[in-house]
């Protein structure tokens, strides 16, 4: 079994590819020929397949860990797996990969899985961990993931009549995390601490 070690890279690549491929009518510049519709659709489907390969591997082999380890196909937990130095500062034992993926599920139109993933985050994720984390990574991937998922959940409640059970839990989680990150911004220079 192959597990993706580049889930985050794939996730961003897929997000950008899917947005581009779904929204573009013609793709061209002066030096290139416009992309045919069947080519765009084939690339869109390939990007979707890549995303689901990585997402399913994470959910089946690593959840609720932060990351999927590619060789062992096991979850990487902060403090339970061998330390990799500064690279582990993005981990906080808060299902980082799942939170970071929520918006991509909506972009792909997988509202049923989005609903399920939001329920998992609300049920299983806690920020009550005594760990030092990367302020930047935690801010963009976790806080940003929670906020974007909250906005999308509200939008879907109004427009698609799904997630009718949702009552702003992700926003409350984002506030909790934001307050926990605030001490990093208490510096004499105004530049936050990196960790």
Task: Write a short abstract of this structure.
With 195 residues, the protein is mostly helical.
What does this structure look like?
There is one protein chain. By secondary structure, the protein is mainly alpha-helical. Helices cover 54% and strands 3% of the residues. The chain has six helices and two strands. The protein has a two-stranded antiparallel sheet with strand order 1-2. A hairpin with a 4-residue loop joins strand 1 (67-69) and strand 2 (74-76). The chain is globular, with a radius of gyration of 18 Å. The two termini are 35 Å apart. 29% of the residues are buried. Its EC number is 3.2.1.-. It comes from Ignelater luminosus. This is alpha-1,2-Mannosidase. It is found in: Endoplasmic reticulum.
Q: What percent of the residues sit in helical stretches (DSSP H or I)?
A: 40-55%
Structural class: mainly alpha
The biggest beta sheet reads:
2 strands, antiparallel
Q: What's the multimeric state?
A: single chain
Number of helices: 6
């Amino acid at each position: 079994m192959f597990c993706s070690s580049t889930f985050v890279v794939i996730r961003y690549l897929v997000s950008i590819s899917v947005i581009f491929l779904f929204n573009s009518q013609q793709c061209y510049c002066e030096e290139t020929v416009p992309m045919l519709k069947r080519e765009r659709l084939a690339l869109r489907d390939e990007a979707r397949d890549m995303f689901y390969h990585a997402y399913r591997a994470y959910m089946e082999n690593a959840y609720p860990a932060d990351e999927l380890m590619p060789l062992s196909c096991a979850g990487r937990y902060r403090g339970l797996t061998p330390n990799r130095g500064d690279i582990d500062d993005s981990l906080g034992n808060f299902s980082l990969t799942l939170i970071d993926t929520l918006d991509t599920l909506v972009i792909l139109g997988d509202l049923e899985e989005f609903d399920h993933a939001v329920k998992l985050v609300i049920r299983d994720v806690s920020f009550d961990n005594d760990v030092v984390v990367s302020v930047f990574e935690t801010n963009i991937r976790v806080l940003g993931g929670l906020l974007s998922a909250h906005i999308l959940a509200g939008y879907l409640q109004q427009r698609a009549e799904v997630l009718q059970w949702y009552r702003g839990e992700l926003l409350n989680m984002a506030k909790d995390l934001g307050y926990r990150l605030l001490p990093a911004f208490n510096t004499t220079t105004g530049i936050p601490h990196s960790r």
